[in-house]
């Protein structure tokens, strides 16, 4: 029982901290952009449920901490249905009520009466804040701890691998893959990891000449932080050597942007392969998988701290902060999907409004909301099923029943 409680603690607490930071920064992006355009805001909340702390500032904004630390939200004034965009009839009724209550011109401070471009920026600012968070974390990490660089020169080729079949030689220097420059060996691994079975062309420098080598990455399974196994692509190459680069602030920022861009690009490419049926969708993970990953990272941090006589809290933070950056990119991408109830759905409705010169009808929005919610819930259930299978929950329950 004690072991179960310890594991639950290591899973739940780090996950709640990680997701609360990510969602709070996301909502802060919406909030700060809205305030920059003079949009009236009723509430900014960290957490959901009953309030355990609340304060109202001079602008009438309620700052709240909810009892359930599972994210947060910002509520704009007059935003009774945050999942949709009011149609023309709703806007007319809303305008009349605001003018009757606060006087002519008061409606201009409400989000729904701002120009489309301002509303779109307010919506897009949430995902953008997630990307900025990731860039900031990666940049600071590289500036403080250094940037691991792995040589682009090949030091070894594993026998009976795709690399051996493609004709690579020890001493070859990696130049580009599918026309994209290879800055270090890790960028090759990242690119190949999502392309198992997909032919690629790798340019190498050999004896002063550039040689193009067609190769098809194989696939292998490895243990995933989210539980179970994950399948990745590989070539079978080993780099000659590696070292730690200590970049200046500008170089660290460039590396932070590049890392965030690579993660986003790889994620989108892999999702595209899942949608088109090229890879098994069992790599999709839910909040359960994220919690397991947070717990595993925390366990590694605790073990490291005990072994090296370091502060457990400081070591755990050092381990979890990069995870925050990776997950923040995922949250930003997820919210940009053109699905009603997500930020991308709002942007889709705004795009329609900019073309049609009027908001989509309430009927269309309601239908889109229902379809979007069904898709989102279906995706969440499927991802949860993957995580339950990866964690062998059903095997465990079956053992209890038998």
Describe the structure.
The chain is of the alpha+beta class and 402 residues long. The chain has a domain at 148-245: Pdz3 Domain. It contains 11 helices and 12 strands. The chain has helices at 2-36, 88-102, 116-145, 162-166, 185-193, 249-275, 287-308, 312-335, 343-356, 362-390, 393-401; strands at 41-56, 62-76, 147-150, 154-157, 173-177, 180-181, 200-206, 209-215, 218-223, 229-234, 237-239, 242-245. Helix 1 packs across helix 7 and helix 1 crosses helix 8. It is globular, with a radius of gyration of 25 Å.
Short description:
The protein has 402 residues and is of the alpha+beta class. 54% of the residues lie in helices and 20% in strands. The strands form five sheets. The protein has a four-stranded antiparallel beta sheet. It has a two-stranded antiparallel sheet with strand order 1-2.
Q: Quote the average pLDDT.
A: 82
CATH superfamily of the domain at 148-245: PDZ domain
Largest sheet: 4 strands, antiparallel
Query: Approximately how much beta-strand content do the residues carry?
Result: 15-25%
* CATH classification, class level of the domain at 148-245: Mainly Beta
Residue stretches low in confidence (pLDDT < 50, at least 5 long) are 393-402
By CATH, the architecture of the domain at 148-245 is named Roll
In N-to-C order, the SSE pattern is: HEEHHEEHEEHEEEEEEHHHHHH
**Total DSSP helices:** 11
Task: Compute the number of strand runs.
Answer: 12
């Amino acid at each position: 029982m004690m072991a179960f409680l310890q594991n639950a603690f290591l899973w739940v607490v780090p996950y709640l901290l990680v997701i609360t930071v990510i969602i709070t920064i996301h909502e802060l992006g919406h909030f700060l952009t809205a305030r920059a355009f003079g949009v009236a805001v009723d509430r900014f909340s960290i957490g959901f449920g009953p309030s355990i702390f609340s304060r109202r500032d001079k602008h009438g904004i309620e700052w709240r901490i909810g009892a359930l630390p599972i994210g947060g939200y910002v509520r704009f004034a007059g935003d009774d249905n945050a999942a949709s965009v009011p149609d023309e009839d709703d806007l007319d009724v809303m305008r009349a009520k605001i003018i009757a209550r606060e006087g002519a011109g008061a409606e201009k401070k409400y989000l729904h009466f701002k120009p489309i471009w301002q509303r779109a920026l307010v919506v897009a600012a949430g995902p953008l804040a997630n990307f900025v968070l990731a860039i900031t974390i990666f940049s600071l990490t590289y500036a403080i701890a250094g940037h691991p660089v792995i040589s682009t020169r090949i030091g070894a080729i594993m026998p009976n691998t795709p690399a051996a079949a493609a004709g690579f030689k020890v001493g070859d220097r990696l130049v580009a893959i599918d026309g994209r420059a290879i800055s270090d060996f890790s960028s090759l691994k990242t690119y190949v990891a999502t392309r198992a079975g997909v032919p690629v062309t790798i340019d190498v420098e050999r004896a002063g000449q550039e040689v193009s080598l067609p190769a098809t990455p194989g696939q292998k399974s490895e243990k995933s932080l989210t539980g179970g196994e994950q399948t990745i692509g590989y070539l079978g190459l080993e780099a000659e050597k590696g070292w730690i680069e200590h970049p200046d602030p500008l170089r660290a920022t460039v590396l932070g942007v590049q890392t965030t861009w690579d993660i986003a690009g790889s994620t989108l490419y892999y999702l595209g392969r899942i949608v088109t049926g090229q890879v098994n969708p069992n790599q999709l993970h839910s909040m359960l998988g994220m919690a397991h990953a947070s717990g595993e990272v925390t366990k590694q941090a605790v073990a490291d701290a005990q072994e090296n006589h370091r502060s457990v809290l400081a070591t755990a933070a050092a381990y979890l902060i990069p995870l925050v950056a990776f997950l923040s990119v995922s949250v930003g991408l997820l919210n940009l999907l053109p699905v009603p109830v997500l930020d991308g759905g709002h942007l889709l409705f705004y795009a329609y409004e900019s073309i049609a010169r009027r908001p989509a009808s309430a009927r269309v929005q309601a239908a889109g909301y229902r379809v979007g919610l069904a898709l989102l819930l279906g995706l969440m259930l499927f991802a949860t099923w993957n995580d339950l299978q990866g964690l062998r929950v059903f095997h465990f329950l079956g053992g209890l029943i038998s």
